[in-house]
């Protein structure tokens, strides 16, 4: 049975180092599949206007396709070029929770993510999510500095 | 057809906005607006509130309560038997994790609630208790509980028959379920009813969803900073509303949507604190509510007066049977329309049974209503009960909270303004949906409605409470006339869905995703 490694990306620069490490690890393991995951931060308990609700489905589709195009697809492409098996998914929810859930679903060996990025959007997406994940994950987590 | 409608609406708006001089005497702008408004809306209001021949009971109130009772029995007391299920749906127990990112049950409920929780709960209840006495509370709670079944029926249909467009956006509500549902059942006239509903929905959005809010927000501000002309508040509000709905300043709406729920919680918390402080009076207050419900305790119209006020306020506040919530709830992408109906039945509960009751209890318990010590009855001042400071409407609620927590009127003023604002935003959307149903979607037609909506903010703030409240109630109840009539035909569709859902829930086919 192939080993699965979950790679969490946030579209931030540190993602390159995360990918590099994933490549190296996968090369060492040999029979290994890399699963690239991008999480769109989302809470089902936020408050929205009726208009936002009506457009929600459209927005969600947009968010997924944007994340796919900008982050996930290029990463998967790069991994495949390196001769590795790779897939990508975009999910909505809390970063730590979703990465952990995906890892459990896929029976992953470990999760690889970047260190807390300090600024802007990245902070929103991965800020304390990294430490949350480290503390709550059910599989080993490798944090790339 | 569309042109005729547009012309008609523009004319009505113009009639109300540009008031002719009514007398030779110099009148203030507020008075002019007020008089023109009362004259223009009078016949409509009289028709909706016409009493059942030989009684003083408005037929429309019976219409709502009978419908709510029929739905309650027809669906086997769904509001009590599925109350727990509603809560687990809102918690997301049954939500498929793969649907994350779509509108959740919680969000649909919160959005619909921010459209209904508002001045009806604060000012409306004060009006009801001020005229109908504490006894009105009893009938209000009863109407709230029954109304849960009406809400369940309409919101299920709202989701089932909404329109989904190519670009992924949705439009739903009574106009859609009436026309599609009737067609499915092979009953003629669905389209006509849907058009009628849409017209009333536009009026309702301009009335209860707009003018009443602007009016009471002005009263609240004037109560704190002193009297000044209403149109000033109106213009200020209109500018902000304009910025949001025309200018697309979503950030303002987003801030309000986030602050409003906390204001709601704070309001209930303050009410509970006042009740705790006056714990020795609680039994007495409930005594007044029960006694007043059946005797009236000296109010105008006796127990029927209390009943009418209670029923009216409940319907106005939670909008069950009106059809507005169906528009808000139809945004949820669920495979089971019933789940949305079940979630929506929490609305009248939170809105009426919890929040409205809190307001009524606080007004009663803080002794705002003057009682004649000799008879134990309430002292009348005209047709309403005399109050300590001669206050009515939102000022009465403010005085009641202020008598216990001196600084609370300031918090309340902010809450009222925010509630008024969020209700306006919600109703501008409901009105817009009805408008685009009639005139088609398009930038220009939408802009016309939005501009009319802003004009009515100014009229609402300038007019006095009486005519505004009459027109608001009348317009919203007119929606209920059409909606409930249609629901009687469509309820069997809901029953079929409901039975199938119930069976699959019992058999374990529908399971919780969370453990």
Q: How many strand segments of chain A? A: 5
CATH domain topology of chain A: Rossmann fold
N-to-C CA distance of chain B = 55 Å
Helix content of chain A: 40-55%
- CATH architecture annotation of chain B: Up-down Bundle
* Major sheet: arrangement of strands of chain B: 1-2
What's the domain count of chain A? 1
Structural class of chain A: alpha/beta
| Pair of chains with the largest interface and how many residues each contributes | A-B, 25 and 36 residues
Give a summary of the structure in a few sentences:
Chain A is α/β, with parallel strands linked by helices. Chain A is built from 5 helices and 5 strands, in the order E-H-E-H-E-H-E-H-H-E.
How would you characterize this protein structure?
Chain A is α/β, with parallel strands linked by helices and 145 residues long. Helices cover 51% and strands 24% of the residues of chain A. Chain A has one domain (3-144): HUPs (Rossmann fold, 3-Layer(aba) Sandwich), CATH 3.40.50. In chain A, strands 3-2-1-4-5 form a 5-stranded parallel beta sheet, sandwiched between helices. In chain A, helix 2 links the parallel strand 2 and strand 3 (85-93). The longest helix of chain A is centred in the middle third of the chain and has 32 residues, at 50-81. The model of chain A has no long low-confidence stretch (mean pLDDT 85). Chain B contains 21 helices and 4 strands. In chain B, the strands form 2 sheets. A two-stranded antiparallel sheet of chain B has the order 1-2. Chain B has a two-stranded antiparallel sheet with strand order 3-4. Chain B has helices at residues 2-17, 29-48, 59-74, 78-81, 83-91, 105-116, 119-132, 135-160, 174-185, 190-225, 230-245, 250-277, 279-295, 302-318, 324-329, 337-344, 346-365, 394-404, 408-439, 443-462, 465-507, and strands at residues 163-164, 170-171, 380-381, 384-385. The interface between A and B is medium-sized, with 25 and 36 residues.
């Amino acid at each position: 049975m192939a080993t699965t490694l979950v790679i969490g990306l946030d579209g931030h620069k540190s993602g390159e180092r995360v990918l590099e490490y994933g490549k190296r690890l996968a090369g060492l393991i040999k029979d290994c599949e890399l699963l690239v995951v991008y999480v769109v931060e989302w809470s089902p308990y936020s408050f929205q206007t009726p208009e936002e609700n009506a457009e929600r489905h459209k927005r969600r589709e947009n968010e997924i396709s944007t994340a796919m195009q900008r982050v996930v697809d290029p990463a998967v492409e790069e991994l495949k070029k390196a001769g590795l098996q790779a897939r990508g998914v975009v999910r909505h929810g809390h970063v730590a929770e979703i990465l952990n859930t995906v890892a459990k679903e896929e029976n992953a060996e470990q999760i690889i993510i970047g260190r807390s990025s300090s600024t802007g959007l990245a902070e929103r997406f991965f800020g304390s999510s990294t430490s949350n994940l480290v503390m709550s994950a059910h599989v080993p987590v490798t944090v790339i500095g | 057809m569309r042109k005729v409608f547009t012309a008609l609406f523009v004319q009505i708006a113009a009639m109300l906005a540009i008031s002719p001089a009514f007398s030779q005497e110099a009148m203030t702008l507020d008075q002019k607006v007020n008089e023109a408004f009362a004259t223009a809306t009078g016949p409509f209001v009289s028709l909706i509130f016409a009493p059942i021949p030989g009684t003083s009971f408005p037929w429309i109130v019976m219409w709502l309560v009978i419908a709510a009772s029929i739905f309650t029995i027809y669906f086997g007391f769904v509001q009590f038997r599925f109350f727990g299920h509603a809560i687990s749906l809102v918690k997301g127990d049954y939500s498929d994790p793969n649907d994350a990112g779509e509108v959740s049950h919680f969000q649909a409920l919160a959005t619909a609630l921010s459209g209904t929780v508002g001045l009806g709960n604060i000012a409306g209840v004060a009006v009801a208790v001020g005229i109908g006495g504490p006894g009105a509370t009893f009938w209000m709670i009863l109407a709230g509980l029954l109304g849960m079944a009406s809400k369940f029926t309409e919101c299920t249909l709202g989701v089932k028959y909404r329109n989904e467009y190519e670009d992924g956006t949705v439009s739903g509500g009574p106009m859609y379920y009436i026309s599609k549902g009737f067609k499915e059942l092979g009953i003629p006239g669905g389209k006509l009813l849907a058009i009628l509903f849409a017209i009333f929905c536009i009026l309702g959005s301009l009335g209860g969803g707009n003018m009443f809010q602007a009016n009471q927000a002005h009263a609240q501000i004037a109560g704190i900073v002193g009297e000044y002309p209403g149109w000033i508040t109106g213009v200020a509000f209109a500018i902000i509303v304009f910025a949001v709905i025309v200018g697309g300043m979503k950030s303002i709406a987003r801030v309000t949507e986030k602050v409003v729920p906390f204001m709601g919680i704070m309001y209930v918390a303050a009410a509970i604190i006042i009740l705790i402080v006056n714990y020795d009076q609680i039994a007495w207050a409930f005594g007044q509510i029960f006694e007043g419900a059946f005797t009236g305790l000296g109010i105008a119209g006796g127990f029927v007066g209390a009943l009418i006020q209670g029923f009216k306020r409940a319907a106005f506040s939670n909008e069950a049977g009106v059809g507005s919530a169906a528009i808000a709830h139809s945004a949820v992408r669920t495979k089971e329309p019933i789940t949305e109906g079940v979630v929506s039945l929490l609305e009248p509960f939170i809105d009426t049974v919890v929040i409205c009751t809190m307001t009524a209890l606080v007004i009663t318990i803080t002794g705002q209503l003057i009682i004649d010590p000799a008879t134990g009855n309430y002292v009348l001042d005209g047709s309403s009960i005399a109050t300590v400071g001669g206050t009515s409407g939102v000022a009465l609620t403010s005085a009641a909270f202020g008598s216990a927590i001196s600084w609370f009127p300031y918090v309340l003023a902010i809450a009222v303004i925010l509630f008024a604002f969020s209700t306006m935003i919600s109703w501008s959307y409901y009105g817009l949906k009805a408008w685009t149903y009639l005139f088609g979607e398009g930038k220009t037609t939408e802009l016309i409605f939005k501009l009319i909506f802003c004009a009515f903010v100014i009229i609402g703030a300038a007019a006095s409470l009486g005519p505004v409240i009459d027109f608001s109630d009348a317009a919203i109840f007119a929606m209920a006339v059409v909606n409930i009539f249609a629901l009687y035909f469509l309820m069997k569709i809901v029953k079929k869905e409901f039975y199938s859902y119930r069976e699959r829930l019992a058999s374990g086919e529908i399971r919780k995703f969370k453990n």
